[in-house]
Amino acid sequence: MAKSLISKTEFGIYCAAGDFYIDPHRPVPRAVITHGHADHARAGHGAVLATGETLDIMRIRYGETFAGATQKLTDPIRLGGVDLRLVPAGHVLGSAQVVIEKGGRREVVSGDYSRVANPACAPFEPVPCDLFVTEATFALPVFRHPDPLNEINRLLASVRRFPERAHIVGAYALGKAQRVIMLLRQAGYSEPVYIHGALQALCDYHLSQGIALGDLRPATIETAQARALHGAIIIAPPSAFGSAWVQRFADPVIAFASGWMQIRAHARRRGVELPLVISDHVDWPDVTRTIRQVDPQELWITHGREEALMRWAVLEGRHARPLHLLGYDEEPE
User: Fold this and answer.
1) Cα(104)–Cα(101) distance, rounded to whole angstroms?
2) Per the CB 3.0–4.6 Å rule, which of 111, 123, 217, 281 could disulfide with 137?
């Protein structure tokens, strides 16, 4: 088997021929960032290369000086001894896979990715390759995500059933919050959607990129006290559930939008009354379908359910290895 262009290091995945790291979890001289979630996009690198949207999102989250230098990757570039390009990952706005080529060999680091249509970002692009690095967040046969529009219709049914109660939906600030709002609009919900202040900047950025979120209003203490939010849908980061903010609302329906809501014990631990199984990651059918599509000789598996996917790969006759990378999890709040 040919020598890989990338390797696992204590900082994350490293390409020696191009002298860059991919989504390193500590500051490095040069980093290629797949997307703006905080467990992949950290501040303090000497230089960051990413899509324009990811660079903008990092500026919103970390300030203008989040890196020593930045470079927007729109077209393929030559970096050291390798050709480097980014292709869509379908995960969140600006998300990308990293495609590295040298001497006829192609390796793809997919980052986090999804195969379900998401109007906030370009769809995942399968790239046939010699080595494919895949996430395994939901890589167990039990994880088969339902149609997200059906989950949103469950939310709307609850709003009709309990018109006197506000519905507070927990959703991560980047990607999931906007996805829930867009699904509501797709389902025909034209009422204002109220948002926690922590979501404002990223929602404003999505709007600036032409992503139609409709009428958004702040979920302030004034609107809560004026009872204007009875029967309303409010989107908030998960951290808000443990804060004094949520106590402003009388008897709200607590919902949560996540692929983990398929596991009822997760919902119970969070005190979730209405679990919504809405994910921006591949489930078991989609991760296995994707691997067959890109058809790599070698498969590397990161942050997630590595053992099940390793076993599946062996049965498929593929060479696979778990990376056991540390520092990657769900979006921190």
Assistant:
1) 7
2) 281
In this structure, the answer to whether residues 13 and 130 fall within a common structural domain is yes
Q: Is 112 helix (H, G, I), strand (E, B) or coil?
A: coil
Under a CB-based contact definition with an 8 Å cutoff, are residues 319 and 173 in contact? no
333 belongs to a structural domain: no
Of 139, 106, 99, the residue nearest 298 (C-alpha): 106
Beta-ladder partners of 198: none
Q: For residue 1, is it within any domain?
A: no
Residue 134 belongs to domain with CATH number:
3.60.15.10
> Is the domain of 103 the same as that of 158?
no
CA atoms within 13 A on the CB side of 104: 1
Which structural domain range is residue 310 located in?
A: 6-142+281-322
Is 178 within 8 Å of 203 (Cβ atoms)? yes
Q: Are residues 58 and 185 in the same domain?
A: no
Measured CA to CA, the distance from residue 284 to residue 138 in angstroms comes to 6
pTM score of the predicted model = 0.94
One-letter amino acid of 101 = E
Q: Token pair of 89, please?
A: 């990952």
- CA nearest neighbour of 229 among 162, 143, 301: 162
Residues 171-229 pLDDT 10s: 999 999 999 999 999 999 999 999 999 999 999 999 999 999 999 999 976 665 556 68
Residues 45 and 75 in one domain: yes
The answer to whether residue 327 is domain-embedded is no
